[in-house]
Write a structure and sequence with these properties.
Two copies of one chain form a homodimer. Chain A has 252 residues and is mainly alpha-helical. The first copy, chain A, has eleven helices and two strands, in the order H-H-H-H-E-E-H-H-H-H-H-H-H. Chain B binds a DNA duplex (30 and 30 nucleotides) through helix 4.
Chain lengths: 252, 252
DNA sequence: CCGATCAATTTTGTATGAGAAATAACGAGC
DNA sequence: GCTCGTTATTTCTCATACAAAATTGATCGG
């Protein structure tokens, strides 16, 4: 692909950053999206530093730092004389929060979506089960509070979605496993953002409160089996919603 | 902590890179290890660019690029005027291959080790079960070949360990899920390197061939239940070995 | 005394030019 | 045909200068 396409699309991204931080990362973002979306194929050589930075109208340093970010995420690898090339897909850090977000900002293939939720169906119920065993009173209180806020504001509002995030965050913390926390929160955030972004506030899903309530009750009661089951349902519902959002966005 | 400690330890790392690639990343490595090992606490401010680069005896650009790598992995965040500070732990990308490796090069706490294998016990058996359903003949052939090589060379040799890697790689590919592949291979590689590095070729584990054979037979037969069970045993054995290696290294 | 607005200072961010290291490709010599 | 040095290209490093951002403090008005 031509580097000009990138320049052309500069600044058109909705930038679902949440908090504005590291504006400069937009270059890495654009390049990253171009890569994960397949506009650069694995093995393909990128232009040299001078040429690329000229096309993008940025300095060489800025371009290099963007490449550093991408190489830290396993998307590219560069060596002297050879140049910088897009890494093979299996080297990509697919679970990196940014990479995930980049993937889901475009139109992820059905199989990718299926794969991601395959992972979620395995991990998240187990996290809920662990949370049921290990939760402290504080976690239960936070989940309860978040649930109340969800009921009050609904998911159509920013406050409601924040409460949803809080609910899951508290649950994950209760699991006490930092790896599960990183994994699940990253995946959840990327997907949640997708649904919100693709279907703007569309009340497509059925009332999510009862399902959350089931999870809450099970975890609060310390019933790991019930927690697992309830969370499985929740993930399945999320899968349904996400698929719906993506299909609506791709075929308007 | 003082930045001088870093300079002092420069070049002492065994650099388990495998292929030499991006030597320059050693700065990021040192800093990353310093962070995940707790020598910098979350929230702590790093020195300014000029001062830090002087201490490390590198240029400002080199130091900045190292910071970029770390920020891409969620370890630090920098803003103008405020400076660069170590991010809160929950922001770290714990499943990033490099971060994992950095964590396990030091002495990870028992609870961390427990947490990681908690994740593995959930994910890897499921990956094996999926592989049993989806494996193609090619995957079986590769696993078979790798198994033969393992039997011939044993895990005490480099060739044998390579065969072990190949075995698991083929199995993961058979699962057909890129997220499972990234997750498992990253985790596996970091831990495998730890055991090899900590206990140099020590024949601590019982013969791993039969356990691998069980997995192979189940996957080849397309029996997902048996695959799940066999892989569970394999993970448990790996947990035992890793714990042993780490304890041996910490209390010589 | 309190508040707000505006300027100053500090820190990261960007730009640019010059050169060093690394490595793949080429060619000379045997 | 094979080995070994040479060359060319590309990333990597360095040094310096300037721009942008954001916190701090000071100044002014109420």
């Amino acid at each position: 692909m031509s580097m000009d396409d990138l320049t052309a699309s500069k600044g058109f991204h909705p930038a679902p950053d949440g908090k504005r931080l590291r504006i400069h990362g937009s270059v890495a973002r654009d390049l990253g999206i171009a890569i994960v979306s397949g506009r650069y194929s694995p093995g393909e050589l990128l232009l040299g530093e001078i040429e690329a930075s000229e096309r993008l109208k940025i300095s060489r340093t800025a371009y290099r730092e963007a490449l550093r970010i991408l190489s830290a995420k396993g998307l590219v690898e560069s060596r002297p004389k050879t140049g910088t090339k897009v890494s093979a897909r299996f080297k990509w850090h697919m679970l990196d929060p940014d990479v995930l977000q980049w993937i889901f900002e475009l139109e992820p293939s059905d199989s990718l979506l299926e794969s991601l939720f395959e992972l979620r169906r395995v991990v998240e119920p187990e996290a809920a089960a662990l949370a049921a065993k290990r939760r402290a009173d504080d976690h239960v209180a936070r989940m309860d509070k978040a649930l109340e806020a969800m009921k009050e504001h609904t998911l159509a509002t920013e406050a409601g979605r924040q409460a949803d995030q809080d609910f899951h965050a508290a649950l994950l913390e209760a699991s006490g496993n930092p790896f599960l926390i990183t994994l699940t929160s990253g995946v959840g955030a990327a997907v949640a953002w997708t649904t919100v972004f693709k279907q703007r506030h569309a009340p497509l899903r059925r009332d999510p409160i009862p399902d959350h309530r089931r999870v809450f009750d099970a975890v609060a009661a310390g019933d790991s089996e019930a927690s697992r089951a309830a969370m499985t349902d929740l993930v399945n519902m999320a899968f349904h919603d996400t698929r719906g959002a993506l299909m609506a966005a791709s075929a308007p």
